[in-house]
């Protein structure tokens, strides 16, 4: 099987999405031929049995047109693609602001998203061309389906594939520093993060985001009794939550951490590699029909085309019966 992974950054970048994707690719079964490209690189999708579209949206601040350009380009590229198309959302890209800010996560019901940005409409169109969509957690799935309408795609939740041999408890809890570690930047640490630690009886210590090499994270986490993960943006997964829990830390999190929505966080991580490759192997018998006959067009035009196609199908079948009867 030939598989193409499309992602907005090199997998050598030190980020949660890149660490996850790199681990998925490293676990590829024998017989899988892998290529990894950036969204702007030229590639012929028809050369591949499976195409996995991970993050396509560039860093923020570039303007709406630029931030949905790659998604629009890939909608064109997969037009008529007969292989298996998987959308692997690693973030909140259908949200105009990338942070699901319109959602009050503490409320029992969420206010409807009425954002008119082309970003939301474009990513909804992209999702609805795919055969399968992968989410990083149950909460992540709920958020994306709240922002856009995902239709006709198999939807699967998959955990963060942390190496639980490296990330494990080696220092007894009672011998650790009585403090809570906070690591992040302004977007990843909400103002109430320190108060969450205080409510659990911990003073806090801060470490800048990505300032510690990932290879040293198990040692760092084993020094602390607790880790605070309280982002101001939605964490689709929250790899640090898995790593901290695996290292024996108390995880103190707010309601924006997707990882904490798993019933059993560590089990979801243990199963992640198998789940990913089982999904990749489960190619549907027929590709998503929205990639054919112009049905991928956005807006009202797509609805008219779908209705026309639905109306024509019985007529075409009747004509075929009549044609065969005249033979």
Helix content: 25-40%
How large is the radius of gyration? Answer: 22 Å
Average pLDDT figure: 87
Question: How would you classify the helix and strand content by structural class?
Answer: alpha/beta
Strand content: 15-25%
From N to C, what is the helix and strand string? EHEEHHEHEHEEHEHEHEHH
Strands across the major sheet, in which order? 2-1-3-4-5-6
DSSP E strands, number: 10
Q: Helix count?
A: 10
Distance between the termini: 42 Å
The general outline is: globular
Q: Which stretches of 5+ consecutive residues score pLDDT under 50? A: 294-323
Described by its quaternary structure, the protein is single chain
Query: How many strands, which pairing sense, and closed or not: the largest β-sheet?
Result: 6 strands, parallel
Spell out the blueprint of helices and strands.
Layout: E1 2-6, H1 16-26, E2 33-37, E3 50-53, H2 64-67, H3 69-77, E4 84-88, H4 118-127, E5 132-135, H5 138-147, E6 154-157, E7 177-184, H6 193-199, E8 204-208, H7 217-221, E9 224-229, H8 239-246, E10 250-253, H9 265-281, H10 300-325
Parallel strand pairs: 1-2, 1-3, 3-4, 4-5, 5-6, 7-8, 7-9, 9-10
Helix pairs in contact: 3-4
Quick summary of this structure?
The chain is an alpha/beta fold and 327 residues long. The chain is 33% helix and 15% strand.
């Amino acid at each position: 099987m030939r598989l193409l992974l499309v992602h907005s950054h090199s997998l050598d970048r030190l980020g949660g999405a890149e660490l996850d994707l790199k681990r998925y690719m490293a676990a590829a079964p024998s017989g899988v031929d892998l290529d990894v490209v950036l969204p702007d690189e030229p590639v012929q999708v028809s050369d591949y049995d499976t195409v996995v579209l991970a993050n396509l949206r560039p860093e923020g601040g570039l303007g709406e047109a630029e931030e949905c350009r790659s998604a629009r380009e890939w909608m064109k590229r997969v037009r008529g693609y007969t292989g298996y198309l998987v959308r692997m959302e690693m973030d909140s890209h259908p949200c105009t602001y990338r942070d699901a800010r319109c959602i009050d996560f503490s409320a029992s019901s969420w206010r409807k998203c009425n954002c008119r940005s082309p970003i939301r409409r474009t990513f909804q169109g992209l999702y609805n061309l795919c055969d399968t969509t992968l989410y990083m957690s149950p909460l992540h799935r709920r958020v994306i389906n709240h922002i856009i309408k995902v239709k006709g795609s198999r939807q699967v939740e998959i955990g963060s594939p942390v190496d639980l041999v490296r990330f494990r408890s080696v220092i007894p809890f009672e011998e650790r520093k009585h403090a809570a570690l906070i690591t992040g930047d302004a977007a990843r640490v909400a103002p109430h993060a320190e108060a969450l630690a205080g409510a659990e009886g911990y003073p806090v210590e801060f470490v800048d985001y990505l300032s510690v090499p990932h290879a040293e994270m198990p040692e760092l986490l084993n020094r602390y009794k607790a880790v605070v993960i309280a982002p101001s943006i939605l964490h689709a997964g929250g790899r640090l939550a898995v790593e901290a829990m695996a290292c024996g830390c108390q995880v103190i999190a707010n309601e924006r951490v997707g990882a904490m929505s798993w019933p059993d966080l560590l089990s979801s991580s243990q199963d992640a590699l198998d789940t990913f490759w089982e999904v990749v192997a489960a190619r549907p018998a027929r590709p998503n029909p929205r990639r054919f006959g112009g049905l991928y067009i956005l807006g009202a035009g797509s609805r008219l085309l779908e209705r026309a196609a639905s109306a024509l199908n019985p007529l075409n079948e009747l004509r075929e019966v009549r044609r065969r009867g005249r033979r």
